[in-house]
């Protein structure tokens, strides 16, 4: 499917979901609205409908008008499947980081996430710098924010006995 | 009056006051340059320290932090495409491409010169036009506010990216996201989780949208830029380059001063508006977004130009123009000063001291900027595979420290993915952000206007000011569409 068509479809689908599913369900109308005040769903509904209209225009132009040349996305030449796998891996790393915070604490989770991200960028050299970044970075940042702003970073259920 | 000014000058020119301003400016620049740390945070954190200071030095410290952080946001925007503050988002559009071309020093110098000039002009406007502009701003009601913000949004959508339509789609997405949380009558909208009842904070959305897509691109596409920015010493802005951007600087300073004086608009909108205007009127408009010094000049002169001007409604009417001046209003009151028309009668000596101190701080900003620039330029020598994870770490810790909220960290990561998706679909991120910032004000003013007019939509075109903005919106839309048609024709001709 050509990119402009896909783009138009995604935009229309998103705003249609918002207008016809999310707004009716997740924007409750209060029983009493004072005077002539517009209800809470007026604005999100208006924006969603405008979004559908804009998406439809994108879709129409994708079929009827000659699209201006878009700059190609620069890659390292990997296949789309490989790049999709990398993206999925990164999403998994983000989710695991958020899940790990209550278990391992903010500090240990940050160390693991940084190590994971550095490896995922393809970095295989600079071992000392990688170690300093992954271990020293979170420790220094935690110390800074704790001492400067008094931020209390969450400790993990599993790592609490070790002070993290 | 002259005697008052001279005595205020003598009172300001003490070593203690100068040191306080230097510390404020320098601290502000550093805070502004760290992603996730905002000027609001710096001013709020400094507030308890001002309890023990004299009234004028305490306000000067807060003003210096504000100015420094507004400039500081441009440093990280240029070097690592991570705007330290929302008002520097436009600077990243041209600053980062310049840094990639090895002209980081040039970009930083242009940002500094523009900021200092914008700041100075803004301070002059504060001194000369405080009362008249504030009175004018007071006359702007909800319908005028709505049309003004709609105009700002249309301009941003028109100038960002390659298509007006996609710019408007991006703005609609930002407006929709801004509705998350409690509305003005207490209803919770799109509150899928209890954390979402309070709405989404600007910081995680801003940082996620602008900083994280770079990391995701690096991981997924693995196109690490090998080139490093050249040394700063060899990258001075030439006289020709400066003169070529002077018009944009002066125009941006005026735009910043005027928009900053209107409560609620602030430096971010001023920067976007000025950037759009510079792109529209520049001979090199097509080069904007690819590394154009004029773009940086327009954005930075406007955002710093708005800083001094936000003090106009605060001092003259006691109305804070943005969050930071809201904190400052508290500082004034703690010190026993009540901003408003009476301040100019009862505390004129303090007012003059403050105005002169603000002028002096513009000069100090120049030196603090030079020193900090050299310090932060080292960032450009770090390999991208190490720098980008470091930026992620800074963002995560910075965002968590704002509200001690893991939810905000999750928003940061999700917005990064959204930003990456928008990049893949060629949807520009700038209109999304500005719509997210302006969205609550836009909606509130629309609903107020409709409530006042008993649901009559024609209230939005009920005064000469609203008509002016409506005409301006049509003008911008027509110009943008015309430009796009011309561009398509040129491309077709070149292809043939």
From TrEMBL, chain A:
The organism's taxonomic lineage, starting at the top: Bacteria, Pseudomonadati, Pseudomonadota, Alphaproteobacteria, Rhodobacterales
InterPro entries named among the record's database cross-references: DUF1468 (IPR009936)
Domain DUF1468: 8-154
Keyword Coiled coil: no
Keyword entries, A-Z: Membrane, Transmembrane, Transmembrane helix
The protein, known as: Tripartite tricarboxylate transporter TctB family protein
Membrane-spanning parts: 7-27, 47-66, 87-120, 126-145
Pfam families xrefs: TctB
Domain of life: Bacteria
Coiled-coil parts of chain: none
UniProtKB/TrEMBL annotation, chain B:
Keywords associated with the record: Membrane, Transmembrane, Transmembrane helix
Transmembrane domains' residue ranges: 6-33, 120-138, 145-178, 198-216, 314-334, 354-373, 385-403, 409-438, 459-481
Any Pfam family the entry gives: TctA
Domain of life: Bacteria
Keyword check for Nucleus: no
Record-linked InterPro entries: DUF112_TM
The keyword Amino-acid biosynthesis belongs to this UniProt entry's keyword annotation: no
Domain DUF112: from-to ranges: 18-433
Annotated protein name in UniProt: C4-dicarboxylate ABC transporter permease
Taxonomic path: Bacteria, Pseudomonadati, Pseudomonadota, Alphaproteobacteria, Rhodobacterales
